[in-house]
From TrEMBL:
Signal peptide: none
InterPro entries membership: Aldolase_TIM, NMO
Taxonomic source organism: Dacryopinax primogenitus (strain DJM 731)
Domain of life: Eukaryota
Protein name: Inosine monophosphate dehydrogenase
One function term, GO molecular function aspect: nitronate monooxygenase activity
A Pfam match: NMO
């Protein structure tokens, strides 16, 4: 949720009964991050020195790069953030250990929960058996934003990981394409302890996305959020091998289909910037974008998902014949 989830969105999701995450934004420095953290504390009414009931999400390759992200993560752990979410790195195990060592350095005996987002069963076995993580986020192929090209559907991945990791095992959360309570109920029925919601929160009042990006989401059709390597070939960020992404940008897809090379596309993007043309701007989002018809408070989204989930679970009980 980089570019999407700041301190306000994280706090409002938690206030509504979910568990919000604040993304470490690599384009800004630690002072901006600390201000976002302070905003979450203020919104949640959590005094300094107490555990802040949100998580901090960070991408592995950003931690590996000398851009100050590691320092921001360390600061958040020392400040008492409840959880850390790691994903997309060449050596995520190293950063799991980094969190554990920061806990020891803090010296209060409290353990920061570590969640790791993964896309294959083999990755999850390593996370559970070697890294000893607290939470595994099983991210299926339906996911918006970045994900593993090798990932199966979320439902298939949930079934696979439970067979590969018998209890006791880390908490398993399902991620990928969650757009309604029906999705949540189905993943709970498949054995997930909870779900991850991304795109629906990108289209909220508290999302850091600007009005242009939110408008793109509002206008999205069912087939507009496309998974491809094109987005990263254009942007050149150092994502690990085997990663692609789902986003919305019809103009870039048209350029690619017309046979334009990446260098030609980048030149057009430079020209666009001079003219104020944003048609080639990538908006990271998943399938649920098509279901967003208005920009609402995050609280409304959480409450609607809860109602729908309860209704679906109750409906499921009517399918069971009792004596």
């Amino acid at each position: 949720m980089t570019f999407v989830s700041g301190g306000l969105l994280a706090a409002e999701v938690t206030r509504a009964g979910g568990f919000g995450f604040l993304a470490i934004e690599f384009r800004f420095g630690i002072e901006r991050f600390q201000a976002d953290f302070a905003l979450a504390r203020e919104r949640l009414g959590t005094p300094e020195g107490e555990v802040l009931p949100i998580g901090v999400g960070v991408i592995g390759w950003m931690l590996d790069a000398p851009i100050g992200v590691k320092e921001m993560l360390k600061w958040a752990i020392m400040q008492g953030v409840k959880a850390v979410w790691l994903s997309f790195g060449e050596d995520i195990g190293k950063w799991v250990q980094f969190v554990r060592e920061a806990d020891e350095e803090r010296g209060d005996g409290r353990k920061t929960l570590v969640a790791v987002q993964l896309g294959t069963v083999q990755q999850m076995k390593v996370a559970a058996e070697e890294w000893k993580v607290d939470i595994i986020v099983a991210q299926g192929s339906e996911a918006g934003g970045h994900s593993w090209a090798a990932a199966s559907s979320t439902a298939t991945l949930l079934t696979q990981v439970q067979a590969a990791l018998p209890a006791p095992r880390p908490i398993i959360l399902a991620a990928g394409g969650v757009s309604s309570g029906a999705h949540i109920a189905s993943y709970l029925a498949l054995g997930a302890s909870g779900v991850v919601v991304g795109t629906l929160f990108a289209g909220t009042e508290e999302s850091v996305y600007d009005p242009f990006s939110k408008d793109v989401i509002l206008k999205a059709g069912y087939d507009d959020a496309v998974r491809t390597t094109l987005w990263d070939r254009v942007q050149t960020y150092p994502w690990p091998k085997g990663i692609d992404g789902r986003a919305i940008c019809q103009q870039l897809r048209d350029d690619d289909a017309a046979g334009l090379g990446i260098d030609q596309i980048r030149e057009k993007i430079k020209e666009d910037a001079k003219e104020g043309n944003r048609s080639r701007e990538i908006v990271w989002a998943g399938y649920p974008a098509a279901y967003i018809k208005q920009i609402r408070p995050a609280k409304d989204v959480v409450e609607q998902l809860h109602r729908e989930t309860v209704e679906c679970l109750r409906l499921g009980t009517t399918l069971v014949k009792t004596d």
